[in-house]
């Protein structure tokens, strides 16, 4: 059966842990100038219905480093964008390329694409979750502090796609997750229930930050929610991750943000640009962890 990566739960715990270690290894290989091209002649199709900087560049660069090729497909230029059924696009594209990466709104669409695809499909962000970012975040934490198992992560902000992937990560990487969202912005209830043994939920950022080893947040208005920006700024008042909040976490706590960030909203400039931030390491790790992911899926 074709192995897809639509959520973190698509890969078993042991394999995910190995994938993180492999990402660290691939990073060292890259930094030391080792040429490693296992993908000669392989092609990744990249479907983007939403904007991206990191995801596009990291996947495209990963394929180039590996000796393969990536094709950028936007709805402006494809028949998918003109309403060709996703099932038809999946059948045809997967008959030509070796893997497909999709960034879009509907998670159901990615699931349907995967159902009809004969090659691995990678979720590069839907409104439901963003598993690729978690590979990079966990790699960054592991590099700085070792295994995240048994530690405490605080998610402070919107109960959005990133929050959902942190919930799945808590299951797969065995950490405790404190979530604080404003009322009305809670994560998916069934997902929370699936990890109830390791999630502590509240509407208090201070409560969530207390005793955390890593604090993570994200924009208050995600892609597609731009018109809610003003309302969300009001609803998320008090949810900025700043020094006062970081001080409630463990002394050596780290901070991360998937980016793009809004300084002065969900995070202060002092924190995201300060010494506790592993945001930039995680952003770079998108390249290395997705190389490990591609290698795993195409092995
Ligand atoms: N974090 C992330 O996915 O960034 P992009 O939107 O730039 O791809
Ligand atoms: N929650 C954000 C993540 C961007 C990488 C969004 O969906 O826009």
Q: Key features?
A:
single chain, 299 residues, alpha/beta, Rossmann fold, 2 domains, five-stranded parallel sheet, four-stranded parallel sheet, 12 helices, globular, binds phosphoric acid mono(formamide)ester, binds norvaline
Report on the structure:
Strands 7-6-5-8-9 form a five-stranded parallel beta sheet. It is globular and about 50 Å long. Helix 1 packs across helix 12 (279-297) and helix 2 crosses helix 12 (279-297). The protein is built from twelve helices and nine strands. The chain has helices at 13-31, 54-65, 86-94, 107-116, 131-145, 161-173, 189-194, 205-209, 229-235, 243-246, 269-272, 279-297, and strands at 43-48, 69-73, 99-103, 121-123, 152-156, 176-180, 199-202, 214-217, 254-257. With 299 residues, the protein is of the alpha/beta class. Helix 6 (161-173) links the parallel strand 5 (152-156) and strand 6 (176-180). It folds into two domains: 8-129 and 283-298, Rossmann fold (3-Layer(aba) Sandwich), CATH 3.40.50; 132-282, Rossmann fold (3-Layer(aba) Sandwich), CATH 3.40.50. The two termini are 13 Å apart. The longest helix is centred in the N-terminal third of the chain and has 19 residues, at 13-31. Helices cover 41% and strands 14% of the residues. Bound molecules: phosphoric acid mono(formamide)ester and norvaline (NVA). The site of norvaline has 10 residues, from helix 6.
């Amino acid at each position: 059966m074709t192995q897809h990566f639509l959520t973190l739960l698509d890969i078993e715990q042991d394999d995910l842990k190995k994938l993180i270690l492999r990402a660290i290894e691939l990073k060292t290989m890259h930094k030391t100038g080792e040429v490693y091209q296992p993908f000669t002649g392989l092609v990744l199709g990249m479907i983007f219905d939403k904007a991206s900087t990191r995801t596009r560049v990291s996947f495209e660069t990963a394929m180039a480093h590996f000796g393969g090729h990536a094709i950028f497909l936007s709805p402006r230029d494809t028949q998918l964008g003109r309403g060709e059924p996703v099932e038809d696009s999946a059948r045809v594209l997967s008959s030509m390329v070796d893997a497909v990466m999709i960034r879009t709104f509907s998670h159901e669409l990615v699931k349907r694409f995967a159902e009809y695809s004969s090659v691995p499909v990678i979720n590069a962000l839907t409104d439901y979750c963003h598993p690729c970012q978690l590979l990079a975040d966990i790699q960054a934490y592991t590099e700085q502090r070792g295994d995240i198992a048994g530690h405490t992560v605080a998610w402070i902000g919107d109960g959005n796609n990133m929050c959902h992937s942190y919930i799945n990560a808590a299951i797969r990487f065995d950490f405790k997750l404190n979530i604080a969202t404003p009322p009305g912005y809670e994560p998916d209830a069934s997902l929370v229930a699936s990890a109830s043994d390791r999630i502590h939920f509240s509407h208090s950022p201070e409560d969530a930050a207390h005793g955390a080893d890593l604090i993570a947040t994200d924009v208050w208005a995600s892609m597609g929610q731009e018109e809610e920006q003003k309302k969300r700024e009001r609803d998320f008042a008090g949810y900025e991750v700043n020094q006062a909040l970081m001080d409630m976490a463990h002394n050596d706590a780290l901070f991360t943000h998937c980016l793009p960030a809004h300084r002065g909203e969900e995070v202060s400039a002092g924190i995201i640009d300060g010494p506790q931030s592993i945001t930039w390491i995680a952003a770079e790790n998108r390249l290395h962890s997705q190389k490990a992911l591609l290698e795993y899926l195409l092995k």
